[in-house]
Amino acid sequence: MASLSLREGVQEHLLLERPILQGHLVKDFSDSCLDRNEGYSIKYAYNSHETYWLNGKKFHLAPGESLFINLKYSKAYHFEASKLSRGLCVYYQEEELQDLFQVLKQQKIIDYNFSAFEQIPELRFERGTHLNQKLKSICSDLQDDHHKIDLAGFESILEEMLMEIDWEIIGYNRRLKEFNPSTRQALIRKVMAARRFMINNLHKALKLEDIAKEVAMSPFHFQRQYKKATGNSPTRHLVEWRIARAKELLEEDEHSVLEISTMLAYNDLPTFSKAFKREVGCSPSQWTKKNEVLSV
Predict the structure, then answer these.
(1) What is the three-state SS of the chain?
(2) What are the domain boundaries of the chain?
(3) 236-295 has the same fold as 2-165
(4) CATH of domain 236-295
(5) Closest Cα partner for 91 from 129, 44, 56?
(6) Under CATH, which architecture does the 2-165 domain have?
(7) How many CB atoms sit inside 10 A of residue 77's CB?
(8) Which residues contact 118 (CB under 8 A, 6 or more apart)?
(9) Is the pTM of this model over 0.70?
(10) What is d(CA 128, CA 62) in angstroms, rounded to the nearest whole number?
(11) Residue 239: its pLDDT value, please?
């Protein structure tokens, strides 16, 4: 049973419910998604800051942000907001989310497993994402008329959320479950910023100190937390991304192997060839020949 509720202050007004099997919408104002104790919920902050306590851990939402909550992990749930605050609460039963999940996976729109997804206690979506733009539009329509509901928009909320999720973030959340939500999300943002910095600077001879400075952390603390979140060291990821980029450049066939090694910040050709062979199982020249044969 999917449902949509409008929140004003700490009060929620159920606007509609959709039975899973019947597939049609039935209005019902008798319940609130705050009362649910299983399934999944999306909380959206429209015009003011909100504070959530999930199992004793404090979590802040700024206007325009949303929070996906797996209610299986959030039995001790509490919420605070100003009387003038407005927002949305969307609720889904597990069967509904799992069914859509499998459809999107079959269509190869998403590439992670539901078993990994359901282990995540919560996920935060920052302002500007497609999901939050859709939730903002729905909330804006309800500003003057509680019965003005974009049914097509409501139907696509769950799909937008699943498509918005990065598999890497799923893994980070799972590995950092012991951190409180605010600390976990702050750390994930730093890890993502570090990843972007490294990927955008594969042509530079980056040192650990350079990456740590970019995200305002000490080298020791950064490397420790990065590995805790991702399962690999920054150096390991740099090697993987450089070799992946090397494959792309070899396929383009516009540069020599020596030029590619220089473009990817390797000191000399032997060092690059050794790293490539360790990752791929053959030298760059051998990989190019195999690739040419396969493409014929």
Answers:
(1) CEEEEEEECCEEEEEEEECCCCCCCECCCCCCHHHCCCCEEEEEECCCCEEEEECCEEEEECCCCEEEEEHHHCCCEEEEECCCCEEEEEEECHHHHHHHHHHHHHCCCCCCCHHHHCCCCEEEECCCCHHHHHHHHHHHHCCCCCCCCCHHHHHHHHHHHHHHCCHHHHHHHHHCCCCCHHHHHHHHHHHHHHHHHHHHCCCCCCCHHHHHHHCCCCHHHHHHHHHHHHCCCHHHHHHHHHHHHHHHHHHHCCCCHHHHHHHCCCCCHHHHHHHHHHHHCCCHHHHHHHHHHHHC
(2) 2-165, 181-231, 236-295
(3) no
(4) 1.10.10.60
(5) 44
(6) Sandwich (2.60)
(7) 15
(8) 70, 72, 94
(9) no
(10) 12
(11) 96
Q: Angle CA(188)–CA(189)–CA(194) in degrees, nearest 5?
A: 95
CA atoms within 13 A on the CB side of 176: 28
pLDDT reported for residue 293? 64
Query: What phi, psi does 74 have (nearest 5°)?
Result: -130, 55
pLDDT tens by residue, the chain, 296 residues: 678 888 888 787 888 777 644 444 444 434 455 566 678 889 999 988 888 887 777 788 899 999 998 888 766 566 777 777 889 988 888 888 888 888 888 887 777 778 877 877 788 888 888 889 989 988 888 776 656 666 666 778 888 888 887 777 777 877 887 887 778 878 988 998 999 999 999 999 999 999 999 999 999 999 999 999 999 999 999 999 999 999 999 999 899 999 999 999 999 999 999 999 999 999 999 999 887 766 55
Cα distances (angstroms) measured from residue 145 to each of 14, 142, 152, 229, 241: 14, 5, 17, 44, 51
CA distance 58 to 129: 23
